[in-house]
């Protein structure tokens, strides 16, 4: 499974907004600089987040972006879906839209299980969890396993 640069940048920008005083809009340039995100790329990401109702924008001299909801009400899954669509695709399709024959038939269950596990992780973690370094215990336990940090 791969996390796109777009999704990674979106979550990092959203975390920056979550860490900011939500009463004061943050300029896109400040978000880009703080997280080392190419500004032009970030503009498109912020547009997607705004369109999905995760951020609001304010024009003018004091303008910028703010979260549209409290940070503890926005999950990493919400952010990724806003910029990349569904969390797990197989050949550009949702696993539930696939059909396999013969000995490959059980593969569909593997793809659905993968999607369920990805959702379990990404829907548990909120922007507030990131900002406060308060990841859920289940997530901390997963990264403590011996093979979690190995590339296999």
Automatic annotation (TrEMBL):
The keyword Secreted does not apply. InterPro entries: TR_Rrf2-type_CS (IPR030489), Tscrpt_reg_Rrf2 (IPR000944), WH-like_DNA-bd_sf (IPR036388), WH_DNA-bd_sf (IPR036390). Keywords: DNA-binding. GO terms for cellular component: cytosol. Gene3D superfamilies: Winged helix-like DNA-binding domain superfamily/Winged helix DNA-binding domain. One of its GO terms (molecular function) is DNA-binding transcription factor activity. NCBIfam families: rrf2_super. PANTHER family: HTH-TYPE TRANSCRIPTIONAL REGULATOR ISCR, WINGED HELIX-TURN-HELIX TRANSCRIPTIONAL REGULATOR, RRF2 FAMILY. This is BadM/Rrf2 family transcriptional regulator.
């Amino acid at each position: 499974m791969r996390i796109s640069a777009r999704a990674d940048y979106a979550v990092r920008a959203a975390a920056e907004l979550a860490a900011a005083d939500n009463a004061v809009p943050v300029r896109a340039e400040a978000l880009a600089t703080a997280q080392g995100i190419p500004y032009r790329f970030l503009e498109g990401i912020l547009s997607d987040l705004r369109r999905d109702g995760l951020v609001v924008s304010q024009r003018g001299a004091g303008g910028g972006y703010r979260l549209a909801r409290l940070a503890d009400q926005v999950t990493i899954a919400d952010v990724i879906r806003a910029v990349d669509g569904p969390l797990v695709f197989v050949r550009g399709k949702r696993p539930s839209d696939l059909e396999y024959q013969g000995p490959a038939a059980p593969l569909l269950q593997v793809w659905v299980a993968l999607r369920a596990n990805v959702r379990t992780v990404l829907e548990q973690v909120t922007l507030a969890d990131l900002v406060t370094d308060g990841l859920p215990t289940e997530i901390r336990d997963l990264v403590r396993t011996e093979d979690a940090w190995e590339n296999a």
